[in-house]
Amino acid sequence: MLSNALLFLLQSVSGFFAGILLLRFWMQWCRAPIRNPLSEFVQALTNFAVLPTRRVIPGLWGMDLASLVLSWGVLVIEAVLTLSLKGILPASVTALGMVLLLALVMLLRLAIYLAIGCIFLMVIISWVNPASPMYSLVNTLTRPLLRPIQRVVPPIGAVDLSPLIVLLLLQLILMVPLAYLERLASLL
How would DSSP label each residue in 138-179? Predict the structure, then answer.
C-alpha cells in the first residue's frame, strides 16, 4: 500500500518535471515567443537545472539539448527508483541499458502526450477566444505537427480537420509502435 503511494508520488513529480523540461525544449525548437506567462513559468521552473547543464551540454543547431537530456535523465531516475521500489535492481550493464531504453520510450510517450495536450488546448482556445495571447504560443507549438496535414487536407466548410487527423495519428503511434517498444523494454 505504501509502495503504491510512493510510486504514484514518484511518477507524478518526475512526470511533471520531465514534461516541463520537454516543453522547454519544444518551445525553443519551435521558436515560441519568450514573453508570455507560460514561457516565463517554464523558464522560472527549470532555470536552476538547465543553466548549469548548458555549460556541459551545449545546444546543437539551435536546439536546447540540455533540457532534452535533463528530461530524459529525470525519466531514467524515475525508472530506476520504480524498479527498486518493486524490488528489482538493475545491477548488470545490460539491465542498465534496458533502463536507459525504457526511459527513452517514456520520453517519447511524454512528448506525444504533450503534443496531444497542446492540440486540445489550441482547439479549445480557437473556439473560445482566438485573440488570446496564449493562442499564438500554442499555435506556434502545434504548427509543425499540423502543417503537413493541412497541406494535404484542406479545410472543409471553414473547418480545419487537421487537429483531428493528427490526434488520431498520435493515438495510433501510442497504441502500436510505442506500446511494442515498452513491452520489449520491460521484457528485457
Answer: HHHHHHHHHHHHHHHS--BTTB--HHHHHHHHHHHHHHTHHH
